[in-house]
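User: Predict structure, ligand adenosine-5'-triphosphate.
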Amino acid sequence: MSTPARLEDNLGFACTDLQCRLGRESAVAMRWLGPDGERTEFTFGQLAVESSRFAAVLARLGVAPGARVFIMLPKLPEVFIAFLGGLKARAVMGPLFANFGDDALLDRLGDSRACVLLTRQSLLKKVNRIRDRLPDLRHILLVDAENHLAADVLSYHRLMREASADFVVAPTSPDTPSILHYTSGSTGKPKGVLHVHGALPSIVGTTRDVLGVGAGDVFWCTADPGWVTGTSYGIIGPWAVGATQVHYGGNFDAGAWMTILEQERVNVWYTAPTALRMLMREEASLYAGRHLEALRCAASVGEPLNPEITFWARRTLGKEIHDSWFQTETGAIMIANRPGLAVRPGSMGKVVDGVEAVILDSAGQPLPPGQQGRLCLRRGWHSMFAQYLNRPEVFASRFHGEYYDSGDMAVRDADGYFWFVGRTDDVINTSGHLVGPFEIESVLMELSEVAEAAAVSAPDPIRFEKVVVFVCLRPGRSPSRELESRMRLHVANRVSSIASPQDVVFVASLPRNRSGKIMRRVLRARFLGQDEGDLSSMETWHPGDLGDRRERV
Ligand code: ATP
Ligand code: MG
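Assistant: Predicted complex:
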């Protein structure tokens, strides 16, 4: 029996009109900080009106519920308005990183049969090059064209001016498709992960309990909407609880970020280890005398949080960092540290309410505390993905009976804290032992010369696999044989002699995808001189990119 459709279950409605009905019409929903210092505020009332206009635009263009609408833009106010408007119209919204190349774009728009793309003129060339291979793409909307350029290349603002704000949102049942995210492709070809409107309770619950964000708080999520964190917690969660969100359209810059935390009096900040590692490289003077009294805590997601980052944040910022674990497929945080739970540095924390996480062996049997195995979740949490678009066989392969297999390896301790070991594909099988890259990388970061490190496996005739580490040094430090030996010894002492790297490769930067994750498969392929595989989601410009760096607003 399907659950009845309700208005407040529509994600777009819950973030806007519902907030107005709760008396927040004139409360600030978004403080938009542009790259050149401009600052614009949007109230919940304005978000409600503007998003309804966009819903009306889609209706006028003949976009039916369930049709796919994509947004390929850097962080701009229009992204948020269109995203919410599309959800109100029950279109399936697909956010894309603005700096995707032709192939990445073709893969995603083609696979999803997108009918509308919202973008801007500087990105149009890219779309035009692949347009003839996208027969379903009926309309391109441009946020920076005053007038329509062709019958199918239209001005967003002109359409918005002509649209009515009286769009009536239809009651929406929880199983209605909502968002389509292509996973970042850290391990392979990106898959279209389809979510539903019924995800709302998971997202709202974790926004409140894990991030500790409620009405009136100032929240800053640094993720781009092209990544699940940027939609679940950079759009939906905070607005559905009535918080004010800071959104910054500029590039990563340590000084600018610290100034935002200070001047905007951010209460809760949600970011990623890659950004934190970049902040750690800065001189301590950047942080001295900062007024961060408003900041209650920071949270981290996307990659394991090395204990060194936790110690640095305590020392330098005087703040605790709460790690959180989730995936595109889970739609919301599943395991996390949170207010009221003591942090064990290096642990992801405990499972959130309403979720059951277990560690299973490769035969699907539960493992006792202290043993590493596959991190699995009992199916049925609200924000569980509905399907991998067009790939039912891959979807089915991720479930073993009642359990969804995350593809990550972890350990649960006797007190219920979860410790990340590595992705199943990244775990190194050496001399008869399974060694997780995270542990090796974290201990290497304890050496003052090391800014960051990535451990990967390579075939070895004796050990089956050997450990190879790629290391980035801090500014001013240089590679040497002596340092290499010290690294080997340190890993042997702190982890085990089996985990000690056979090869150390010094590099200026590590390859990352657009959500900032280190791409170990690319390092492995490079080391072995093999094909690097699908690189469509790889950031090639600069390490630590969390948003759009190439295209300035
Ligand atoms: P693909 O599945 O296409 O390879 P992806 O897994 O990188 O892409 P995401 O869904 O963005 O795409 O990433 C989720 C993964 O990120 C998790 O499965 C885990 O490996 C890693 N991750 C996320 N949060 C944490 C965390 N707190 N600690 C350790 N790893 C994390
Ligand atoms: Mg994944």
